[in-house]
Amino acid sequence: MATKTQTKKVHCGICRDWEIKNPERCSNTLIHKRKRLYFCTRKCKERFMKSPEKFL
Ligand SMILES: [Zn+2]
What we know:
By secondary structure, the protein is of the alpha+beta class.
């Protein structure tokens, strides 16, 4: 059995179903309460910044 649990999936903070394929290359990121969040587009990031409590 191949137990490679290093690759944990990262999803957009707004569209939860949207998987970020290359989080290390994602430029739409944000540190919120010491946690790094990823977004599929800048629009999602902006939406989160406007009302973060809605998406947590
Ligand atoms: Zn998104």
